[in-house]
């Protein structure tokens, strides 16, 4: 679990740019933010959708002090239209696609890139110039070309017909990466309001969930750039509200839900970076510093529909479901449930 979590955190804050490419891109000021946002968008949006999944595998709630512990993985499948983006020259002041290169660029969740980007920034009576090739995507290296989110979740019945859930990922704290994930959910079973219908195997509930994720990645040593206090900072909040139903039989449970997802996240490149550039007319070089050069926001919202099934073997449960939304998401896991 720890290795998978560390891999996930590293994917989130890795720009996939080599030091020289990143140095050249930072020259482009606001253009750098826009290009990186287009490149990183699917993994950032996919994570928001992924973390809004897996809150339930039944609409039924625990008896008082009943509880379950769930180990699960969610995977938000990146749609085809998020695997590449079109470079629109009118959106950029200092960047252009090199002659002969394609205007269609693969995102971080796409495949290989061959597009060369030219940088040309006015400076006094000259221009600071450079070129770089867009980095390849990593989508082909991930199962289903999906953004994963493994986690542990616990639910307990403390209030009648109501479960309180907490989800958690073991905190990562290495020399370079620190991060944590925590979430809270509430599920309320409505069958007690329907009189004798509560004797049926049918359960209907409403639920809401909130997940927060924070990652700090010290890139001072790995960036290869001169400077101080260099770090990538990732923050995410994801929310979901759903109406859910389940048919709970002794051996199998069929469950589903309809609802709404919302999420927001930021990705920042903080610190000071000393960058070397070449002038177009004189071929001389100059060194300059930029501070906190990258600050990107990513927001998403989507209606959703979920259908899943759970196999009940005593207190041991095995479940899986599929959610249709902006980023369709697969969830699967095991649970140990004690009523």
Summarize the structure.
This protein is mainly beta and 339 residues long. It has three helices and 16 strands. The two termini are 27 Å apart.
What's the domain count? 1
Instruction: Report the CATH topology name.
Output: Lipocalin
Major β-sheet, in short?
10 strands, antiparallel, barrel
Determine the strand fraction and express it as a percent band.
over 45%
The number of distinct helices, counting runs of at least 4 residues, comes to: 3
CATH class designation: Mainly Beta
Provide the descriptors you would attach to this structure in a database record.
339 residues; two-stranded antiparallel ribbon; 3 helices; mainly beta
Description:
This protein has 339 residues and is mainly beta. The protein is 12% helix and 56% strand. The strands form two sheets. It has a ten-stranded antiparallel β-barrel with strand order 1-7-8-9-10-11-12-14-15-16. A two-stranded antiparallel sheet has the order 2-4. Strand 8 (162-173) and strand 9 (177-189) form a beta hairpin. The chain is elongated, with a radius of gyration of 24 Å. It starts with a helix and ends with a strand.
SSE topology:
Elements lengths: L1 H12 L5 H8 L3 H22 L15 E11 L6 E3 L8 E3 L6 E3 L9 E8 L2 E8 L12 E14 L2 E12 L3 E13 L12 E17 L7 E23 L3 E28 L5 E7 L2 E20 L2 E9 L4 E10 L1
Antiparallel strand pairs: 1-7, 1-16, 2-4, 3-5, 5-6, 6-12, 7-8, 8-9, 9-10, 10-11, 11-12, 12-13, 12-14, 14-15, 15-16
